[in-house]
Design a protein that fits this description.
homodimer, alpha/beta, 6-stranded mixed sheet, 6 strands, about 10% strand
């Protein structure tokens, strides 16, 4: 497990958590960053090259005042991968109420809401997001240390109110693994940055995750696996 | 919660986890160190000074080739607190099989077995141990990162095979809190050391816990509380 290949790890997650089923219509959030780009590439190559469940994939990019538009190189990759792209412009800054400060959580909630509405309206049954193992473990640490709750973003989550399931096929892939893949595929420079970033909570959690796991993939995976092996009798009631 | 008093925190744990009931016969493991000494002091003062559940407390010290005998100052404290002390000598080193190396886990298992047998034979219904919040969180991290299991030493654990329940009244107290108390009470120097210590796993976990919580009590308590608030729907299946 020293240097596992990204697609092999995504395959494992897809199987382990039954993320893709026959007939799925999947809408993928495409930020333009390395994570969602790698996810879309995986879907495209898997779709094109393998037998197995038949499903369709559409990418959706929510553009805002803060995001740079998807660059031409990325657009031509999507075309080459035969993944249709829908772009919607949302005035995230315009939605801020007086006294509210822009932050990553709020912006991502706005973008998520747009994707959810579109998926429900257009009959997509799954929304795939580019959250990876580090994101999931950082959220775990923030929820535990700030809220006192043991929870995170699960690999698969069925919405109660809508006929839509969120899936996170990168849940077993950590950042170094995705970076290696994106570098090899030549799209690492597409990663978008945002001038409004106010994300100290997550940066702090990233530092803590690094200390906890010594930055090692094997430790991250153990920690993730522990979340599937909860021994309630050996925890405080 | 900046500098909470030890006995107030133990009170809270005893109530929250219903650790002491009327008629309890409690056997306390007494290593001679600050943790179990503070626990015995708490029991003694609580027994002597308060109304509430009626219970009895006996201390038991397992002496081995590695442990220094309890010093006279500690013995006179126990006497002053009116806590009877039973000492049993066990040849921990003598029990090591060929090729086995002495380590903390094995030694503590040997000592625990002696206490368990004695408790069952003599009709104690509870065994109180001096494990504190840091011990519990370190075990949590070791179990998660090494075994991939989410579990730790719970505040209360009923043995399935014996009519005995383990309790850990220091579960909400961290090391700095116990050290401050022991210093104020004047028994910090009784802490025993062991020449055979081979405990790199726990030392590593202590370092990680420190990084995770920035050594702050509030963060440790949040992490502990998270273990009572497990949202299985928001964890990987």
């Amino acid at each position: 497990m020293a240097n596992p290949k990204l697609f092999r790890v995504i395959d494992h997650a897809v199987t382990r958590f039954s993320l893709i089923e026959d007939g799925d219509r999947i809408l993928v959030g495409a930020s333009g960053g390395k994570d969602s780009t790698a996810l879309i590439e995986y879907f495209a190559l898997r779709m094109l090259r393998r037998s197995g469940p038949q499903f369709s994939v559409t990418a959706m990019h929510i553009a805002s005042e803060m995001s740079s538009p998807l660059n031409d190189e990325l657009l031509s990759r999507f075309e080459q991968w035969k993944v249709p792209l829908i772009t919607k412009k949302v005035a995230v800054l315009g939605r801020i109420k007086a006294g509210q400060r822009m932050n990553c959580w709020w912006c991502s909630t706005q973008r998520r809401t747009e994707i959810n509405s579109f998926a429900v309206r257009e009959g997509y049954n799954k929304i795939a997001l580019g959250h990876h193992l580090d994101d999931i473990l950082e959220t775990l640490l923030m929820n535990a240390l700030v809220k006192g709750v043991l929870s995170t973003m699960p690999p698969s989550l069925a919405y109660e109110k809508y006929p839509v399931t969120l899936i996170r096929p990168l849940c077993l892939a950590d950042i170094p693994m995705i970076v290696r893949h994106a570098e090899a595929s030549g799209y690492i420079n597409s990663t978008c940055t945002c001038a409004y970033q106010d994300n100290s909570g997550r940066k702090n959690a990233r530092r803590k995750l690094e200390a906890l796991t010594d930055g090692r993939y094997a430790e991250k995976r153990k920690l993730f696996d522990a979340l599937s092996h909860v021994k309630l009798d050996y925890l405080p009631k």
